[in-house]
Every structure is written in C-alpha cells, then in structure tokens.
Amino acid sequence: MAEKVTIIVHSGDMDKVYSALIIGNGALAMGMEASLFFTFWGLQRLKKGGLEKGPLSKMNMLGLGKWMIKKKMKQAGVASLERLLKDFKELGGKVLACDMTMEIMGIKKEDLRDDLISDYCAVGTYLTEARGSKVTLFI
Amino acid sequence: MAEIKVDCTGETCPVPLVETRKALRKAKVGDIVEVTGTHPSSKKEIPMAVKALGLKIIDIKEKGGIWKIRIRR
C-alpha cells in the first residue's frame, strides 16, 4: 500500500486552504495517497461557489489584503484553488465532508459540491484514514 | 513509444509537479515524458518525485533559466 497523507481542513481561510491543497497535490504527485477531511470553516469552502470565498488568515482588512495577495499570486502564476481541487481529484485524492458540521451549520448535501465529495463521514472515518498515514496535518 | 511534452513555463508550485504526475499517469511504459519549466524548486523536486515513483530520469538540461527534464515511464 502506498504511503498516505491525511489533512484536516478546519480553516476556511484562503491561504490555509491553499496550503492544504498544495500539500495534497504534492503528495499525489510524489506517488502517495492523500485525503482531505473538510470540517467547520473548511467545509464552507465546499459549498457551491464557496471555494474562493475565504478571507486571508491575517491582514484581510475587509478583503483589501486578500485582493492584494490575489493580485500578487496572479503575477507569480499561482494556480487557482479551483484548478488545484480539480487536479487533486484527477490524481485520485479523496475529499471527505464532516457530517456533524453539516448538521450544526444547517448545510445540506445539495448546498455542497457533491460531485467532488468522496464521502460524508465523521471522526471514525478520519481516524481510519489517519492511523494508516505517514503524515497527518491539522490546518 | 511516444514522447509526451509538458510545458510548465511560468507556472509555480505545485503545478509543474502535478502536471508531471498527470503526464506520467497517462504515459505507457517505455514512453518519454519531457517537462519544460522555469520554477527553480521544481527542477530539484521533479527528480525527487520520479525517484519516489520508481522511475528513471533520462537527462536534465538548463539554459537561460528554462529547464527540461526527460523521464522514462
């Protein structure tokens, strides 16, 4: 069995979702398996139209900071979150959605991008993934 | 045997690595994947990924900040 990376995506901040998707894609590119467990604020990013909506974790300044960073990222040729998520799925990455968060926040399956989500699950699934992983991260 | 060309010029982390992996997945055993790019770290890291995948680098060339890595699938 291939080595695995499991990441809890708890934050919905744009920069942190980038970290999670870059590491996830990197792992797949290097022949590892990868699972992203989206929970709490992270799960908001899997809502339809929500992926790019996260604020900057620091110096967001009502969106001005985010706008400036996005401009710099565009200049540097950084891929969009949309592209990274599409690549992640294409390379066989697993996207897991926390069903407790859905219940607490009143998020229904039809509010989420169901086509990208491999499973709706809870802590037991996360631990089943994590216990066999070489790398686990909480972002 | 085919030669597959991947152009990652101007792309940054993690795109060259991801595009290399995508091309290697599509390639058949014996095919050559040639990746061109400008992102400095990817020149070091694509060979790391190739090694981790158990494949072989044919050669790495660089001229004027543009590198070319050839990989045998």
Protein architecture, described:
The complex is a heterodimer of chains A (139) and B (73). Chain A has a single domain, classed as DsrEFH-like (Hypothetical Protein Ychn, Chain: A), CATH 3.40.1260.10. Helices cover 42% and strands 17% of the residues of chain A. Chain A has six helices and five strands; from the N terminus they run βαβαααβαβαβ. In chain A, β3 (94-98), α5 and β4 (119-121) form a beta-alpha-beta unit. In chain A, α1 runs parallel beside α4. The longest helix of chain A is centred in the N-terminal third of the chain and has 16 residues, at 14-29. The model of chain A has no long low-confidence stretch (mean pLDDT 96). Chain B has a single domain, classed as Translation Initiation Factor IF3, CATH 3.30.110. Chain B has helices spanning 15-26, 40-52; strands at 3-8, 32-37, 56-63, 66-72. Chain B has a four-stranded mixed β-sheet, covered by helices on one side. In chain B, α1 links the parallel β1 and β2. The mean pLDDT of chain B is 96. At the A-B interface, α1 and α4 of A face α1 and α2 of B.
Question: What key phrases describe this protein's structure?
Answer:
heterodimer, A: 139 residues, alpha/beta, Hypothetical Protein Ychn, Chain: A, five-stranded parallel sheet, globular, B: 73 residues, alpha+beta, Translation Initiation Factor IF3, four-stranded mixed sheet, 2 helices, 4 strands
Low-confidence runs of at least 5 consecutive residues of chain A: none
Provide the succession of SSEs of chain B: EHEHEE
Mean pLDDT of chain A, to the nearest integer, reads: 96
**What is the global morphology of chain A?**
globular
User: Which CATH C-level class of chain B is it?
Assistant: Alpha Beta
Helix content of chain B: 25-40%
Kindly report the name of the CATH homologous superfamily of chain A: DsrEFH-like
Give the name of the CATH superfamily of chain B. Answer: TusA-like domain
Spatial order of the strands in the main sheet of chain A? 4-3-2-1-5
- State the secondary-structure class of chain A: alpha/beta
Kindly name the structural category of chain B.
alpha+beta
Largest interface: A-B, 16 and 17 residues
Number of strands of chain A: 5
CATH hierarchy class name of chain A: Alpha Beta
- When the domains of chain B are counted, the total is 1
User: What's the order of the H and E elements of chain A?
Assistant: EHEHHHEHEHE
Q: Over the alpha carbons, how many angstroms does the gyration radius of chain A reach?
A: 15 Å
Distance between the termini of chain A: 25 Å
CATH topology of chain A: Hypothetical Protein Ychn, Chain: A
